[in-house]
């Protein structure tokens, strides 16, 4: 297959979930390979970028970390609009945070097209003795509401064992595959840019 047209891809990934589930820690772990135990709550949203090559395609992920506080909920569409993927994060020690995912799922279904890739992530697996949500419960919900093909992960932003890298790699490969097999008339609808070299991740913020 001739995939020369798909050598560059830019994709927007939005991270959604309740306050305190560890969205920022998850993103920082992936981008910087570090964990900040006393990180402050995100105000509005911030984004970080990550460049990687998957299946001979140079990819630039723009990862938007959104605030979980209810007062910012009305602004959420500003941040997930135009996304190709959404990471829905809950805390395995908080049944409430898992239940609140449903409102995000329903909102995305109402406002985004069916091409959006959704991944459900249970964070804080290092606190498994305090868990209130089992992996089987999460998988049952995701299969019923989003379909059996939807990815479900349990990770620890604190004690990462490679699963966070794996989930982003799998997500990126899905984004690349989707572009490769897209009908030629629709390819230009996928945002793309020329990437000339790998650089260190940069962080920008808004709504300070």
TrEMBL record:
<feature type="compositionally biased region" description="Polar residues">
    <location>
        <begin position="191"/>
        <end position="208"/>
    </location>
</feature>
<dbReference type="Pfam" id="PF00071">
    <property type="entry name" value="Ras"/>
</dbReference>
<dbReference type="GO" id="GO:0003924">
    <property type="term" value="F:GTPase activity"/>
</dbReference>
<feature type="region of interest" description="Disordered">
    <location>
        <begin position="182"/>
        <end position="208"/>
    </location>
</feature>
<dbReference type="InterPro" id="IPR005225">
    <property type="entry name" value="Small_GTP-bd"/>
</dbReference>
<dbReference type="InterPro" id="IPR027417">
    <property type="entry name" value="P-loop_NTPase"/>
</dbReference>
<dbReference type="InterPro" id="IPR001806">
    <property type="entry name" value="Small_GTPase"/>
</dbReference>
<dbReference type="GO" id="GO:0005525">
    <property type="term" value="F:GTP binding"/>
</dbReference>
<keyword id="KW-0547">Nucleotide-binding</keyword>
<protein>
    <submittedName>
        <fullName>Ras-like GTP-binding protein RYL2</fullName>
    </submittedName>
</protein>
């Amino acid at each position: 297959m001739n995939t020369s047209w798909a050598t560059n891809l830019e994709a927007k990934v939005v991270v959604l979930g309740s306050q305190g589930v560890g969205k920022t820690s998850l993103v920082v772990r992936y981008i910087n390979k570090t964990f900040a135990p006393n990180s402050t709550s995100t105000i509005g949203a911030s984004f970080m970028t990550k460049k990687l090559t998957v299946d001979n395609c140079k990819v630039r992920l723009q990862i938007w970390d959104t605030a979980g506080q209810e007062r910012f909920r009305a602004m959420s569409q500003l941040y997930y609009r135009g996304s190709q993927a959404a990471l829905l994060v809950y805390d395995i020690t908080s049944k409430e945070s898992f239940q609140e995912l449903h409102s995000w799922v329903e909102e995305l279904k109402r406002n985004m097209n069916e091409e959006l890739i959704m991944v459900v992530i249970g964070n804080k697996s290092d606190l498994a003795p305090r868990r209130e949500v089992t992996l089987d419960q999460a998988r049952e919900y995701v299969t019923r509401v989003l379909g059996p093909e939807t990815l479900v992960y349990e990770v620890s932003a604190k004690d990462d064992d490679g699963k966070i890298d794996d989930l982003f790699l799998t997500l990126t490969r899905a984004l690349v595959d989707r572009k490769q097999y897209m009908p030629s008339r629709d390819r230009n609808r996928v945002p793309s840019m020329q990437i000339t070299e790998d650089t260190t991740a940069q962080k920008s913020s808004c709504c300070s």
